[in-house]
Design brief:
- The chain is an alpha+beta fold.
- It has 18 helices and 22 strands.
- A hairpin with a 3-residue loop joins β8 and β9.
- α11 packs antiparallel against α13 and α17 runs antiparallel to α18.
- The chain starts with 11 loop residues before the first helix and ends with a strand.
């Protein structure tokens, strides 16, 4: 009997189950699971899912790559001028923020300082008795006019009215007399390195309420330069003992009569404000000096847009400026500063002038300065080519290794082909030690000097020093062999303090200990004669004799760069001689 086939009636739930099972069987079908060929369209059509899956599979490498990419994008953005403009482009129209590397110890201008930050701030807080223009001529300051009497031994100055201290009181002739008398006492009685050293034997007399008289013992064509000092208030310092003045509160909180008054100073900045009592109405009412411990920190502050201006003596250190098109470099060659290598003629190793000449002949200054990259104009001798007393007819020592080798062989030195150094008959290598202040630019320069002399067969050992060591342990005691040092001279060719034999001991600057009677006479006659043509002849001969004795290697005049935002109008470096004078026309500066 034929069986009847049972037909199962599917419920709604059974139908859904069948569909699911059918789908699962399709997905697990061997035919469907065969390897499919790679198709780029899958990536483009499904790129979110593709990226997510790839990212998960590559963890932790993917995290490293992601964060690295983000960091790179941030760095690139920080380096763009757009970022600087966004962050720093909204600077207050009445404020200038400058960045400097270093600290401030004293703002009392009666003390000599090589700290260009202090000098810059002094130029804003105080006024000079008289000013000196870029040609070396006197111009009015607190003194409005003057006359010379008794054949250049007496000078009388009339004090200008309308100069006020930052407390509103007027500057008087008593302030002037007090300033000069105190400067002399600081130097003569207390032994401080004060501005009074330039006129220590001068007599200062108040003739009346508007006139002060200076009497000197001998004629001096650079007397105006000596008298160009900042005037300080009598009433705030009169009761302070000269021996304690360096520690008085005035050094950290000064009051002057300059274009800007002191507000406050902390560990990171100094704040100045417009002097309401002077004749000027500057657009910039506030000036801030931000102080940084090193150039890397300053660079970061610049990159994030915190600074409107920075100053530099080294183009290499501020090379990152080229990445920004909204900043400009204002350049000034400082004719009144010279970078030298002083030979200590007191040392037996350098008493023979032929050795000093040899070391000069072995140095290729042109190549050195170009590779150094700091910026600067090469010096041939003690005076720059721009000086009216420069002697162009001298046969200045130039790089000549052949001539140097001939001189060395006469002195008993021959180059060892194995070591590459010059050695004497005892097999001793020709060796010298150079001492220097350890700053970034000097480190770079000394490294180059060592390499250059090594190539020529001379071993140059290095002695790096901090500021205290170089001033108190080397310069004060004259304990060095070769000394890399920068000195400040003057637009006037007088270099009495650098080369006269009476100036060979501290605190004077004849660091080489150079001593030649004929040069002494020429330097004396050059500063005692008021006739410019006569003086020129004296300095022509001075340069000739000095270069023949080679007491130093004259390297270069440095270049100062004042880097500012391109919308800051009024900066003028053409009318000045020193970096700290850059604010001479600050009342004309404004943001456009």
């Amino acid at each position: 009997m034929k069986k009847t086939k049972k037909v199962k009636v599917l419920t709604k739930e059974d139908s859904l189950m069948k569909v699911v099972l059918d789908e699962l069987s399709v997905k697990t079908s061997p035919i469907i699971s065969e390897k499919k060929s790679f198709d780029f369209r899958d990536i483009f059509w499904n790129y979110p899912e593709f990226l997510v899956n790839s990212f998960k599979k590559l963890i932790p490498v993917s995290y490293i790559l992601l964060f690295g990419l983000v960091a790179l994008l941030i760095i690139l953005f920080l380096n763009t001028s757009t970022f600087t403009q966004i962050i720093g482009g909204n600077q207050k129209k009445d404020t200038l923020v400058g960045g400097v590397v270093g600290t401030v110890n004293s703002l009392n201008p009666l003390y000599v300082t090589n700290n260009y930050i202090e000098r810059s701030i002094d130029s804003l807080i105080f006024e000079k008795f008289i000013n000196i223009d870029s040609d070396g001529n006197p111009t009015p300051g607190i003194a409005k006019n003057w006359e010379s009497k008794e054949d250049g031994l007496v000078y009388e100055f009339k004090i200008d009215e309308g100069h006020f201290w930052h407390d509103g009181s007027e500057v008087t002739v008593d302030d002037v007399v007090f300033t000069f008398d105190t400067a002399i006492k600081l130097s003569k009685e207390a032994g401080f390195d004060s501005v009074g050293i330039a006129f220590v034997d001068m007599e200062v007399t108040k003739l009346d309420e508007n006139t002060v008289q200076f009497r000197v013992k001998e004629k001096n064509p650079v007397i105006f330069r000596a008298l160009s000092i900042y005037i300080v208030p009598h009433k705030y310092l009169a009761e302070v003992e000269v021996s304690k003045m360096a520690f008085d509160v005035f050094t950290k909180s000064p009051i002057g009569s300059g274009k800007y008054g002191f507000v406050k100073m902390d560990s990171s900045a100094i704040y100045l404000i417009d002097n309401p009592y002077d004749e000027y109405e500057p657009h910039l009412k506030n000036i801030v000096f931000k102080m940084y411990s090193d150039w890397d920190t300053l660079e970061m502050a610049f990159r994030v847009g915190n600074l409107d201006a920075i100053g530099s003596w080294d183009r290499m250190i501020t090379s990152y400026i080229e990445e920004y098109d909204n900043f400009v470099r204002n350049n000034l060659v400082i004719d009144d500063r010279e970078k030298l290598i002083f030979f200590n003629t007191r040392k037996d190793s350098l008493k023979d002038k032929d050795i000093r000449i040899i070391l000069t002949l072995l140095l290729n200054k042109e190549k050195l300065i170009e590779e150094y990259g700091v910026g600067g104009r090469i010096l041939n001798g003690p005076l720059p080519e721009t000086s009216w007393a420069y002697n162009k007819d001298i046969d200045y020592l130039k790089y000549d290794p052949t001539k140097a080798t001939e001189k060395l062989e006469k002195l008993g030195y021959k180059k060892n082909p194995n070591s590459g150094y010059f050695e004497n008959q005892q097999g001793e290598i020709l060796t010298f030690t150079i001492s220097y202040l350890s700053i970034l630019s000097n480190e770079r320069l000394v490294a180059l000097l060592s390499d250059y002399y090594k190539e020529e067969g001379v071993l140059l050992q290095v002695e790096k020093l901090d500021y205290t060591q170089i001033t108190q342990e080397v310069i004060s005691t004259r304990d060095f062999e070769l000394l890399l040092y920068e000195v400040e001279t003057s637009v006037d060719p007088d270099q009495y303090n650098l080369w006269h034999s009476l100036k060979a001991n501290f605190p004077d600057l004849n660091l080489s200990g150079y001593n030649y009677g004929r040069v002494d006479i020429l330097l004396e006659e050059g500063r005692q004669n008021m006739d410019k043509e006569v003086r020129k002849q004296k300095y022509y001969l001075f340069q000739k004799y000095l270069m023949a004795d080679a007491p130093a290697i004259f390297l270069y005049n440095p270049i100062y760069e004042y880097i500012t935002r391109d919308n800051l109008v009024g900066v003028d470096l053409d009318s000045i001689s020193h970096s700290y004078e850059r604010f001479h026309n600050i009342e004309e500066w404004y943001w456009k």
